[in-house]
Amino acid sequence: MKKLFTLSFLLASVFVMQAKVELPPIFADNMVLQQQTEVALWGYAKPNAKLTITTTWSKAKTITNVDADGKWFARVATPVAGGPYEITFSDGEKSTLKNVLIGEVWICSGQSNMEMPMKGFSGQPVDGATDLILGAKTTTLIRSCNLEQVKSFELQNECPATWYEHTPQGGGRSERNCIFLCKETL
């Protein structure tokens, strides 16, 4: 009887784990999405389910099919710059991203100097960076994203990333920060 209970518990746990919508790390609380476009969203959910995406900036719902492997993809229209907003994903179980801003997303890559910390390197400080970092406030609609370096000969399905609000702790945290601005801050 004890073995049957344990097996039932494990099977139920596996089912619950598959039911929760999973998103790549680039889609997280505090993120910024490009304004006035159709942004691509993707992830994993319960196989063969219908996934509903709702946003607090629109009354429209986006519904997409989850394939047999649990993968899904959808496009969602974004408004002009603003926020914060929420995005809710549901395949029967809800998962919500909070504090999402809509604004300008600029991605830069390719040169080693793009890896400079916001405060600068040792012996090569960025003028005014310390005051900017220490004076950071969450009311300023700026976010930074820490992108981890991944070295691989294989194509990667995810980009390890962590989003931070504009705070002294988040603003100067990483050696690989990308800055995203809401239009109101420009």
Summarize the structure in words:
- Helix content is 15%, strand content 36%.
- Strand 3 (50-55) and strand 4 form a beta hairpin.
- The protein is of the alpha+beta class and 186 residues long.
- The radius of gyration is 20 Å and the shape is globular.
- The strands form 4 sheets. A 5-stranded mixed β-sheet has the order 1-7-6-3-4, with no helix packed on it.
- The protein has 3 helices and 12 strands, in the order αβββββββββαββαβ.
Secondary structure blueprint with pairings:
Layout: H1 2-19, E1 32-34, E2 38-44, E3 50-55, E4 61-65, E5 71-77, E6 82-90, E7 94-103, E8 120-121, E9 124-125, H2 129-134, E10 142-147, E11 161-165, H3 168-171, E12 177-181
Parallel strand pairs: 1-7
Antiparallel strand pairs: 2-5, 3-4, 3-6, 6-7, 8-9, 10-11, 10-12
Oligomeric state: single chain
Average pLDDT works out at 80
Derived structural class: alpha+beta
- Count of beta strands: 12
Global geometry: globular
Termini separation = 65 Å
Helix content: 10-25%
Order of helices and strands: HEEEEEEEEEHEEHE
Strand content: 35-45%
Record the strand order, biggest sheet.
Answer: 1-7-6-3-4
Low-confidence stretches: 4-17, 172-177, 181-186
Supply the number of helical segments. 3
Task: Tell me about the largest β-sheet.
Answer: 5 strands, mixed
Radius of gyration: 20 Å
